[in-house]
């Protein structure tokens, strides 16, 4: 299973939000240093999120460029990618893969155009939800469509990589809701990456047992609850 450290960017700094709430952030300093530390500890891939773009409050283009120049490993980029222009910019910044969420839920025609532009290998879709209740627009708005209906639609459209985040638990260190992840796994026939609240090795072992291909790790790494080098040996 691929372990993917997350570096969330806000105001040029690495931060973690509690349950996706921009008013409840914990700063972690220079994002380049965070990315390099994860690379040195054995990470083979990183998950970068431009929170300012997701929330419509700016961008962190310079920080993404600095991370790209410092890294030897690939990264995916998420946050506010809601147009073909934004998709092209994300890939031009050096992202191995762009991650879209709101567009995939609200604008299926645009998602189709993005898949045609980037190809399924360079475009992942984010299913951000409170359990299975889908949220969009930087996790600030609840969508009316059901998560399971979306999964069926996306698979039929040609999406091949899904990133599921349980917003209720993100940044809380509460541990995963593995029952919900199991339902997503059952409904999604392709590559599944999961995150949101991972607190320890038991969560990672639970994901592995479900056949999940990847896990996104955030606060547990920053707070020392999980050592990446040790986790890599286990999973």
From TrEMBL:
GO biological process, one term: L-histidine biosynthetic process
Highest taxon of the lineage: Bacteria
Presence of the UniProt keyword Isomerase in the record: yes
Intracellular or extracellular location(s): Cytoplasm
Gene3D superfamilies: Aldolase class I
Record keywords: Amino-acid biosynthesis, Cytoplasm, Histidine biosynthesis, Isomerase
Active site, UniProt feature: 8 (proton acceptor), 128 (proton donor)
Source organism of the structure: Thermus aquaticus
Entries under InterPro entries matching the protein: Aldolase_TIM, His_biosynth, HisA/PriA, HisA_bact_arch, Isoase_HisA-like, RibuloseP-bd_barrel
Protein name per the record: 1-(5-phosphoribosyl)-5-[(5-phosphoribosylamino)methylideneamino] imidazole-4-carboxamide isomerase
């Amino acid at each position: 299973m691929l372990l993917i450290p997350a570096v969330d960017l806000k105001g040029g700094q690495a931060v973690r939000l509690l349950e996706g709430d921009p008013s409840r952030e914990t700063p972690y300093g220079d994002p380049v240093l965070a990315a390099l530390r994860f690379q040195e500890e054995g990470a083979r891939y990183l998950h970068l999120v431009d929170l300012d773009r997701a929330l419509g409050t700016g961008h962190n283009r310079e920080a993404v460029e600095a991370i790209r120049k410092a890294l030897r490993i690939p990264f995916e980029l998420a946050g506010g990618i809601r147009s073909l222009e934004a998709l092209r910019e994300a890939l031009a910044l050096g992202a191995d893969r762009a991650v879209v969420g709101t567009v995939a839920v609200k604008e299926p025609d645009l998602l189709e155009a993005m898949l045609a532009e980037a190809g399924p290998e360079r475009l992942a879709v984010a299913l951000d939800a409170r359990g299975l209740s889908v949220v969009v627009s930087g996790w600030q708005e609840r969508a009316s469509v059901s998560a399971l209906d979306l999964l069926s639609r996306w698979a039929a459209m040609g999406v091949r990589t899904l990133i599921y985040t349980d917003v209720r638990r993100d940044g809380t260190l509460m541990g995963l809701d593995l029952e919900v992840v199991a339902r997503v796994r059952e409904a999604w026939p392709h590559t599944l990456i999961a995150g949101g609240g991972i607190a320890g090795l038991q969560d990672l072992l639970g994901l592995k047992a479900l056949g999940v291909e990847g896990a996104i790790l955030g606060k547990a790494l920053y707070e020392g609850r999980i050592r990446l080098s040790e986790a890599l040996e286990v999973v």
